[in-house]
Write a structure and sequence with these properties.
seven-stranded mixed β-sheet, five-stranded parallel β-sheet, 39% helix, 19% strand, globular, N-acetylmuramoyl-L-alanine amidase, Peripla_BP_I
């Protein structure tokens, strides 16, 4: 018998300044869709309707509107940047649809119409900054793309660094897709900061990494670079210059879990032995599975029923156990720190002892407290909303 089909929208840019990551998200999402459609566990099939906003921010609203009005989807997976999510958010709330957002993001948002599958700031920014403060420096030079993710990430970083009696040396911003990085690299070489925090997105980041590596090597400088977004496919794009970047993420291809080894083997069988999954792509894969399992348990695609069925359901994903915190629609994830190597992979040197609950508003954080011996972050004895 033919399974009934449930339409699901997938929005990810296949062209534009961050097309590489958009393509990775689509590859992972379609891999999950095909797997689900071929499993007897599910009594339905997912019909994927893909839209390409081409990296044009206003187009995200347009393609989302098309999926809802003309296709009738109730669930949408995708968006890579927070700028694109902000374009989609009003229409999914107005029409009462559900966006399954795979990318790590800056926090300080909680919509009933979004499932936040990627890392919250307490999963990536906090462990990274704590590590830097304890092991590298209390002074950080920030360079990033001029949009909300960089703004908020820099703000949280500034609070953490200032509480440790450190300082942010500079915050330099480029427009999305901007390739003129020479003036920032020249300033870095001139000022010689102890560390550089890179929150650039897409092609801007690759151009900066290559220029930064060349300029610092020529000047005889060894300045560590930090990231909360760099992933394996981007290491290949940036080339050898990307080695040595300290990155905070919930997923790396090198995670030694049987679920991840099986996932990577399936990935390489599908896309080639020399390809690698990305963190946001893997999150899109997880999002499809979380949605499918919720659809199966709910017995309907109605978003209220699906949201209730999804909350608290544990899924042993490639990155480890993942489940949705029903109080805020964000995922429980395991933070990790790694350094990129010359082979285009990451060497993991720290991970949390157990999955960490999402804290998108950082209300449980005491920024003045020191991390525990194992590197985990303490809860505040009182609630503190970050200003």
């Amino acid at each position: 018998m033919t399974k009934p089909s449930i339409p699901v929208g997938i929005i990810c840019s296949q062209h534009g300044p961050y097309q590489a990551m958009g393509r990775e998200i689509l590859k992972s999402a379609m891999m999950a869709v095909d797997e689900i459609n071929n499993q007897d566990e599910f009594d339905f099939a997912i019909s994927a309707h893909v839209r390409d906003p081409r990296g044009i921010i206003s187009e995200y609203h347009t393609v989302c509107d098309d999926l809802i009005r003309n296709v009738g989807v109730e669930h949408i997976i995708g968006c890579y940047t927070s700028a694109s999510r902000k374009q989609v958010l009003p229409i999914v709330e107005r029409t009462d649809r559900l966006l399954w957002y795979p990318a790590r993001y800056e926090g300080f948002e909680c919509s009933d119409n979004v499932i936040y599958v990627g890392a919250s700031p307490n999963h990536n920014v906090l462990p990274l900054v704590r590590y830097v403060l304890d092991n590298l420096s209390r002074e950080i030079f920030c360079v990033g793309s001029n949009y909300v993710w960089t703004w908020e990430t820099n703000r949280v970083t500034r609070e953490l660094v200032t509480a440790a009696k450190g300082r942010i040396l500079a915050e330099r911003l480029l427009e999305l897709g901007e390739s003129a990085v020479t003036h920032i690299v020249d300033e870095i070489v001139r000022r010689r900061p102890p560390v550089v925090f890179n929150t650039l997105v897409g092609s801007s980041s690759y151009d900066f990494i290559r220029a930064f590596h060349a300029a610092t090597a020529a000047a005889g400088l060894d300045i560590p670079m930090l990231s909360c977004s760099l992933c394996e496919p981007e290491l290949k794009i940036a080339g050898p210059a990307s080695a040595g970047c300290i990155t905070s993420s919930a997923y790396f291809e090198s995670i030694r879990l049987p679920e991840n080894r099986a996932f990577v083997a399936r990935w390489k069988a599908r896309y080639g032995e020399h390809s690698s999954p990305s963190v946001d792509g893997q999150s899109a894969y997880v999002a499809v599975y979380l949605l499918a399992r919720a659809l199966q348990r709910a017995g309907t695609s109605n978003i209220g029923e699906v949201r209730r069925a999804a909350a608290g359901h544990r899924y042993n994903s490639p990155q480890g156990p993942v489940w949705i915190d029903g109080s805020n629609n964000h995922c429980v994830l395991t933070p990790r720190l790694a350094v990129s190597n010359a082979e285009g992979q990451f060497d993991i040197f720290w991970e949390a002892e157990a999955p960490v609950r999402p804290d998108p508003y950082l209300t449980q954080l005491d920024i003045a407290a020191s991390p525990a011996r194992d590197g985990t972050l303490p809860n505040a004895p009182h609630l503190r909303v970050v200003k």
